């Protein structure tokens, strides 16, 4: 299968700081590829090199078969890009702004049909294109950013934290747009530091941590979703008894138990199956229970921490399909 994006030994230094360490990444044409990682991992840096906003210190980048440094306007027309920090401050209405972009990048079809798609997308996302963009809220500006990326149906969508500022219903609509793009044969590369968003859309995922890819494969094989944070309040026991009951259970880590009124407040991180924990919990009076996805940094560090901080060791990839390049 041909590659929409081929990154080889991409290295980026900002003065003394190395943001990317010899990164290799292969995005198959027609796939939805998720790049996930905690803040500062290097996601934005990677995506910016693909659209020639920044230039690599070394290494090579190929986007739709071309070097972004030399692809010029013709290559940019084949790409829809949403930057991580979107600045829309002009007096123009969303509609005028999009009409301008449609003139510039409307490679697939006429400007009229591109703008028709823009209006449909605006209806779906719920944004008023008649208002000056500078008066829009952060979330509504983000919607305009998404529309400009999708409306000309580019071959490749590069989306940096695309759901930032969107409320959950709009996020769901966005995820449908991504699936439709894939069904239409477009390639989507999106970055996120929210695991659940990637789980719902991406066929393949790379986990970036401190400028290195520490794992790559399908979402299930990475086991990132297998780390959960649990908080529970239970009655009719005390901290000593409860600690003894829970601390030896498989996968239970960072257990914290404190006396709380007639019972205890217990919080822990569980890696792997949650069943042994729930079976033990069921012996008590459960007054409250929350199970959450921990932040990605915690999951990545827990599962791949030693690798993400190894400065000299070669990157080990966890992939259900093995290396593809
Ligand atoms: P976030 O999720 O917070 O947006 P990210 O994964 O997109 O993070 P980058 O923005 O690519 O990460 O940053 C990678 C590293 O490079 C960080 O340590 C950041 O501080 C550093 N960095 C990014 N841009 C610059 C710059 N212009 N000058 C110096 N350092 C930079």
Automatic annotation (TrEMBL):
One of its GO terms (molecular function) is ATP binding. Residues 5-235 form the ABC transporter domain. The keyword Nucleotide-binding applies. It is a peripheral membrane protein. The keyword Cytoplasm does not apply. InterPro entries: AAA+_ATPase, ABC_transporter-like_ATP-bd, ABC_transporter-like_CS, ABC_transporter_ATP-binding, P-loop_NTPase. SMART domains: AAA. Signal peptide: none annotated. It is found in: Cell membrane. Keywords: Antibiotic resistance, ATP-binding, Nucleotide-binding, Transport. Residues 304-325 are annotated as: Disordered. Belongs to the ABC transporter superfamily. PANTHER family: ABC TRANSPORTER ATP-BINDING PROTEIN, ABC TRANSPORTER ATP-BINDING PROTEIN NATA. This is ABC-2 type transport system ATP-binding protein. It comes from Microbacterium murale.
């Amino acid at each position: 299968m041909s590659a929409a994006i081929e990154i080889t030994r991409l290295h980026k230094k900002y003065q003394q700081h190395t943001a990317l360490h010899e990164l290799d990444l292969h995005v198959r044409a027609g796939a939805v590829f998720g790049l996930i990682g905690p803040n500062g991992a290097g996601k934005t840096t990677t995506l910016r090199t693909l659209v020639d906003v920044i230039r690599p210190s070394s290494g090579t980048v190929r986007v739709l078969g071309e070097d972004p440094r030399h692809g010029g306007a013709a290559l940019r027309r084949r790409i829809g890009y949403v930057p991580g920090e979107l600045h829309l401050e002009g007096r123009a209405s969303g509609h005028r702004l999009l009409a301008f972009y449609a003139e510039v990048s409307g490679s697939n079809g006429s400007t009229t049909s591109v703008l028709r798609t823009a209006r449909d997308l605006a209806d779906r996302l719920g944004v008023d294109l008649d208002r000056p963009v500078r008066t829009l809220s952060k979330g509504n500006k983000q919607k305009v950013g998404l529309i400009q990326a999708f409306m000309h149906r580019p071959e490749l969508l590069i989306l940096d934290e695309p759901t930032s500022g969107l409320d959950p219903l709009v996020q769901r609509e966005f995820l449908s747009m991504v699936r439709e793009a894939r069904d239409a044969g477009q390639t989507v590369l999106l970055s996120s530091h929210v695991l659940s968003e990637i789980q719902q859309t991406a066929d393949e995922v790379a986990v970036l941590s401190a400028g290195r890819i520490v794992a790559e494969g399908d979402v299930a094989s990475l086991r990132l979703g297998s780390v959960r944070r649990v908080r529970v309040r239970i009655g009719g026991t005390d901290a000593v008894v409860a600690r003894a009951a829970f601390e030896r259970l498989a996968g239970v880590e960072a257990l914290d138990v404190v006396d709380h009124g007639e019972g205890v407040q217990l919080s822990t991180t569980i890696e792997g199956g949650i069943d042994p924990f729930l079976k033990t919990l069921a012996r008590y009076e459960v007054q409250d229970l929350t199970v959450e996805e921990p932040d990605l940094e915690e999951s990545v560090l827990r599962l791949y921490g030693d690798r993400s901080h190894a400065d000299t060791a070669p990157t080990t990839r966890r992939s259900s399909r093995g290396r593809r390049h």
